[in-house]
Amino acid sequence: MATDNSPLIFLMGVTGQTGRLILEDFDRTPGNARIRVGVRKQKDLERLRGEGRDAVLFDLDDPRTFGPALCGVDRMNILTGYTIAMTHQTKTVVDAAKKAGVQHIVNQGVFAAEDATDSKYCWFALVEAYIEASGIAWTHLHPNVFLENMLSVSQPIGGTFSVFWGVNRVGYVALHDLAAVTAKVLRDGPERYGSKDYYLSTETMTGPELATALSEVLDRSIRCNTLDPSEVEALFKKGTLEVEDWYARSSFELLTQFADGRMGYMGTVKDDVPFLLGRPATSVRDWARANKAQLLDLVDQRADETPTE
To answer: What is the pLDDT of residues 125-163, one digit of tens each?
Structure first.
């Protein structure tokens, strides 16, 4: 049970898909920790305070919110968007964490090689180097492709989804495994997990193999369009996918390098989940079973149908 002397853990991003799962993990198993959450919107602040939580205003683009949010904090996670903004956001929040006396930072990165040349992966490398140079104890988490992308950017609408790396294999991880690992490292702290990198790539599949696995679980015929990077570039240029220009260019470069073999390591298994949680990581088929209802809703949706909120 947490007391006034228990470590105070600060969580950001709790209204997003990963941060929400991290908070839920602490709700189930709080351990000897107190939790403070930071949110950007006033309505979220009021809702979370109404739930009895220690909630504060926190905006990665407004360093004026950092001091009050991090005052008294012992450990924190860093969870940013996958854009160039992560560089100045992380620099300023790490500076604030140092001033506040934060003792441990758990940073969510990417599944990258040390000499990666894709711009997005380079941004993460710079972020990690700055955290390590701060003198604050650190732990870096390196998830590969999220299975939850099947519920968002790669939805099997009408029974068909697309991948943009041909028939190359890619490693997958379930977000609730990533969230459980994050919570575990934050609970146990830097004495156990400081100065360590952990990798989360549970199972590799090609797009057609993923379609086969989903077909077996859902008992429906699921198909995969194996497209190449030039086709996602066309979607960016036509405005079909609305993202910032830096992100679009980086994503196209990443897919190009993956398709031509320079980032072939993304198709490998490197699974540290059992070492941290004492259980197997979630397989693709187990994840599909757990999310069967949502997947079937997408499969049963017509390709020309506009989803409702």
So the answer is: 999 999 999 999 999 999 999 999 999 989 999 999 999
Question: What is the enclosing helix (H) or strand (E) of 191?
Answer: helix 190-193
pLDDT of residue 309: 41
Decide the pairing of beta strands 270-271 and 196-201.
antiparallel
Question: Which letter, b or e, does each residue of 124-162 get, where b requires 16 or more Cβ atoms within 10 Å of its Cβ?
Answer: bbebbeebbebebbbbbbbbbbbbbebbeebbbbbbebb
3-state DSSP call for residue 34? strand
C-alpha dist (Å) from residue 105 to 77, 145, 151, 189: 6, 23, 29, 9
Contacts of 80-87 with CB under 8 Å at 24 or more apart are 80/127, 82/110, 82/120, 82/247, 83/123, 83/244, 83/246, 83/247, 84/119, 84/123, 84/246, 85/60, 85/61, 86/123, 86/124, 86/127, 87/123, 87/126, 87/127
Q: Interhelix angle for 119-133 vs 85-100, to 10°?
A: 10
- Distant-in-sequence, close-in-space partners of 300: CB < 8 Å, separation ≥ 6: none
% of the chain residues with pLDDT over 70: 92
Structure tokens belonging to residue 265? 């390591």
Q: Which among 143, 162, 263, 161 has a CA at the least distance from the CA of 202?
A: 143
Per-residue pLDDT reduced to its tens digit, 22-79:
999 999 999 999 999 999 999 999 999 999 999 999 999 999 999 999 999 999 999 9
pLDDT in tens, 267-284: 999 999 999 999 999 999
**Residue 81 tokens, joined:** 């968007």
Sign of CA dihedral 130, 105, 198, 243: negative
Phi, psi for 46 (deg, rounded to 5): -65, -40
pLDDT at 109 over 60: yes
